[in-house]
Amino acid sequence: MDSESRVVKRDGIVEEALPGLLFRVRIEGLEENVLAHLGGKLKIHRIRVIPGDRVTVEMTTYDNRRGRIIRRL
């Protein structure tokens, strides 16, 4: 494993809720939407995310089409 961090955090708005705790998120500055799932702490504490919420999404630099929602703003 590299010691470098290959994770990018971006803010966005939830556009659509999909089955299986997946969400389509519109990221500010990107042309296409990101398919994101809920991070562990959001699941554990049962934080609800609905369309229209502002969220922080964590994505890798390798694939910017998928990510993980780590915070609801």
Protein model, in words:
The chain is mainly beta and 73 residues long. The protein has a single domain, classed as Nucleic acid-binding proteins (OB fold (Dihydrolipoamide Acetyltransferase, E2P), Beta Barrel). Helix content is 7%, strand content 51%. Strands 1-2-3-5-4 form a five-stranded mixed barrel. The radius of gyration is 12 Å and the shape is globular.
General form? globular
CATH class category: Mainly Beta
Second CATH tier, the architecture: Beta Barrel
How far do the termini sit from each other? 31 Å
Instruction: Give me the CATH superfamily.
Output: Nucleic acid-binding proteins
Order of helices and strands: EEEHEE
Low-confidence stretches: none
**Total count of domains:** 1
- Total beta strands: 5
CATH topology tier name: OB fold (Dihydrolipoamide Acetyltransferase, E2P)
The average pLDDT score comes to 90
Helix content: under 10%
Strand order of the largest sheet: 1-2-3-5-4
Largest sheet: 5 strands, mixed, barrel
Structural class: mainly beta
Rg result: 12 Å
Number of helices: 1
User: How much strand?
Assistant: over 45%
